[in-house]
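[step 3/7] fold_predict: job queued, chain A
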Amino acid sequence: MSALAPFISFDPAADEPADTKWLWHGLVAAGKVTLFTSLWKSGKTTLLAHFLARRRAGGEFLGQAVAPGGSLIVSEEPRD
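[step 4/7] structure written:
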């Protein structure tokens, strides 16, 4: 007897539990994958650098609450 595959919904409202732990309220949730995508040279790296700097102490960034804490950065880019 085979096990049934788990149900996967692509409706964001259905997937989000009421107790979501937000790192950047409404935008980046703990334990989730967030994709920032846009044209090159449009400010993605600058946005993330300022967001990660705000994460150190927490507070507010671009009008949304930011939870304090550390962050791990994994990148294919060279350190320099």
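[step 5/7] annotate
DSSP finds two helices and four strands in the chain.
The beta strands are 22-24, 28-29, 59-61, 64-66.
exit 0
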